């Protein structure tokens, strides 16, 4: 005999699941096939893709943990469980890319199979279809092969939800069992130990449980049915959530954010067209949802139209509008106003700033409220403490059982207690977050309690400053009441269950967050700082993605199947809701009528009047023919009944109305697109709809005759939309219907709808929007879609399907494909009948063929339908439609995961390693094995490529990391140097003569043209009169269909080839030339050929680098803020133009600082002022340069006021001219005062003023006559041909009349006469990167030298005035900048003694160097008589170091060497960077 205990033990959900799994039937076969497919797709070739940036972080830290136990939890890296699991994988299977992804892949497989846990609620087919959709889901498949935290996060969330469902509505013998609480605890800590998205899941589940509990409490105490109340509220929330999603799109496209930066920040400050668009779109959004709610209500009550529950519909709409408004307000509040571009500055010392302060700006109110609430909680627990004798009290006694005794009647309250008490201490970070405060405030707190703070700093190694100690103190003050209250509540609820549940939760928490009890600080970083970090990130908005990122980009491109399925599920769910409301209302009224009649009968009284409509429901079916005469029906009676049935079939048939709607839509499309005839619409839909209606009437007539012949009564023949409530309905059935209104079972479908809507809203609101987060959005949508499709699949009659249904399904597939091909030309690309060209005719013929196939297949469907019925065909049509979507989804997933997995043409490839990473690794491995017979090759790499290469270099034994400051000492012994684009300008001068360079893409991001959608862009996209809009739509379709950007690039004028991908981060691999020549031989046959890797031109700029040290440093007490231009006056005074910060709220800088010849600071001239404030005189906006004349007059380039200011030696304005003229390469002479970001200025001996008009690609020349400026002429024009210039920066004038121009983007110096005649150019071996810093130049006419700054390389190049480079000095500054180092080498000047003044913009100083050590060789060229009357002097360059193999011809040379494995081009010279705009000098 089996005891009850044994029965319960052997009959839990897991046992039944496994026993069912080993039953050999078709369901098991399908599940096994799905499992095998999941294993294959998640593990096949999973190590082939190179690690992305984030993946390499995870792998490297996991590797450190596995090798030496070195790991400390940090919220920056999310939860610690992934690292422990990956470290275990390394220990068991070794460390490589494949084993790194084992944990995530296993969780991806479990996620695919997880719907089987919910089979009880999804149904048999629903669970299978959910597994199938998760299997082929593109985002789930892609990130199931990715070492990220999202797969564990989602699966653990589902585990927690499964525990909730089983505890509340599992089998009777499993409800309220303690082990489900343990499952919930494991799911919670697994989720929290995976990623901060756990807070979203726990909040969504917790709030739903709370609302469910409140509804059941109202039901219990107020004796009203809770289900209508709860369901109406939930419907309102769902509809309001969907409305808010539409409003998010509208608010992002209308760009209300721009109003934040205007003085009149209100709706009417928008342009009228924007206002109208906003109103129209808002009305459409709200109106469409009202139509959905009202339409489904009318459909459900279509046979009792006079009984519409309008009040309930209005309640839903009212709740929806309130919810929508709330979500929209939250969305607007969540925006962080940007204050413009800010300068990089050294962080302030909060501890120093706190010295001497005793008060803070922190608000202590939240902390006080927490303590008050905690004390109140203890008082409540004491007052309501449990009674031991309530078990004998009846459940209906609402107050005799006490609070806890009453709560025991509500199992959901158990879950609220468990989840709430476990998560409550984790909410500690909310308190300091609400309190506000800065690091200085926390330092003040610590200084006020020095004994405690000093003890924390002394005994806790991770606390190193008073500000950190203050944060710990405030955190403890918030943590202690929350933690203690959580324990008190849990113990009061059920101390046995809570202690076990809490122990499971906290032991696992401590195990992982402390790295197996070795890092006790992890207790604080996990329980407190996890939420704190997540809250801080909401203001960061990583990626800066628009609010519609998920709704208009990721989900439509990848997860269109669950999105469309969820829309269908929404309609089905509303229909179910209204159908239940109709049935419940009728049952309620009938019961009331019967009770009234029973009361009258007891009084033996006949009612005087008819019972009112509020008490009696009319009969749904009115007998049209007396039953007694049913056997004597006339032909006309039969026709009348058949016609009525046929008419009702037409009215109730969605296919018929779908044809009518499609006909109307297609007619509108034809008119809009310019195709004036609507014959196509009629052929496709109107005529088949008419034939279909005739068929339905004939079918109903035949069916009526058949049913009458079989003995059915006319009442039984009458069509019923649902179960009818009549006078004959049994009382038991009425009570059963009414009991459904009792909120007793946990609503699975309502919960997943809640999860889906709030997920979409929450992640759209979240500051960080990334493609991998779409996995969280997809999961609940798949469950909803599977529920809907499962219900329809289960309605398919297998017998009918095997008869003709399978043929209908095949033809239906053909019909849908042909229908799509018929509509595609009308919406995308070239329209049919638009012309007689070959392309246009091809489109026309294709459209006609598709239309004929669609019409023909529809006719075949009509023919095949009669034996199986249209109801069955509707189910087959639905399944066929979703079958096509499934195939498309599978195709999308396979392309993303197995074809384009590391190409940025996929929107899932975000901050992802490009194929170049694997190519570089292959090259390095080949070199190392060939030269060292192992992994001992000398490698240098920087901070830009550290991820993922710090992971891949783990097995190399001679690797040096140089951060962002590579030096000559670092690279002297290196064989391989690998750096990112940001450090290329620093490395190139150090290596280029001895190394050959290979250029690759390291990381890339998807194309981001979807940023900044506006109404104008959308109007252009759908403009039927613009051929370019049709091409644009075709381009977008090509991207969606095949990730082909060709047509889109042609429509937009962009280059989206993978070699020139617009959003990428490049890296540069330098291989020592002799090693490269040794490894990659270019010998051909016996004779061989010259290997271009064996020799190259010596760069004298690098070869003769001189370690010159500055003799003087110019700095002021108030600091030089972003200085740029500099000039030295005849009296030796130094004038420095300070740009200041870009932040419009900053006032520092924007002036001219003056120093004496000995370096003593004298004064500043001017302050910040813009044209908008109508300032005249000593007011500047980021001045870039200054020129001092011999008489002491000053000419200032007031760059971003777009003007030039001329002051006399008393600083009184002489002339001010200039206006904004951002014309770029198309700039014309007029307006003669137009500038775009002017950079430098020179004045020649004749008083002519030369201005480098940088953005407009020219030099403008003026002269001042009687205080008036006169425009003389312009020099140069945009381009790269001789005499043309591109982005001119610094300029300098030689006394001989030559004008030298820093031709930045052409990477050369262009030489003109001061009259504008072009003379020559010579290339600059520098300016390698475009980081917005412009070079300046200065002439030393006494020694015939030209000094050229290389800003980002932190050096100065030295040329002769004839164009020969003779050397360089300076190097990039590190953390401690020396007297010969620059962070950004900007302006430059030379005084009469030859001293060189170099401005360091970033470090805010000027270094003064002695003249460059160079002595020209002078040769006197005599005339025929042996004299030299003309004084002709020819200089020759003295060779200081190195041997020049070939002279510098002034033309860049590129030796192309095909890399054996990659085919990449080996480029010895740097190709000019391509730009996408005329200038980047705009603010």
Can you put this structure into words, describing what you see?
This protein has 1483 residues and is an alpha+beta fold. The strands form 11 sheets. Strands 1, 2, 3, 4, 5, 6 and 40 form a 7-stranded mixed β-sheet that branches. A 5-stranded mixed β-sheet has the order 7-32-31-30-29. The chain has a 4-stranded antiparallel β-sheet with strand order 8-37-36-35, with no helix packed on it. Helix 4 packs across helix 5 and helix 7 (102-113) packs parallel to helix 11. It is globular, with a radius of gyration of 39 Å. Residues 1-10, 260-264, 336-348, 607-633, 669-685, 710-722, 1082-1092 and 1428-1483 have low confidence and may be disordered.
The proportion of strand residues reads 5-15%
Distance between the termini: 86 Å
Report the average pLDDT across residues.
80
Q: State the share of residues found in helices, binned by percent.
A: 40-55%
Largest sheet: 7 strands, mixed
- Overall geometric form: globular
Structural class: alpha+beta
**Total of DSSP H or I helical runs spanning 4+ residues:** 47
Unreliable segments of 5+ consecutive residues: 1-10, 260-264, 336-348, 607-633, 669-685, 710-722, 1082-1092, 1428-1483
Radius of gyration over C-alpha positions, nearest whole angstrom: 39 Å
* Strand element count: 40
Q: Summarize this, please?
A:
Helix content is 48%, strand content 12%.
Task: Describe the structure using short key phrases.
alpha+beta, five-stranded mixed beta sheet, globular, disordered C terminus, seven-stranded mixed beta sheet, 47 helices, disordered N terminus, 1483 residues
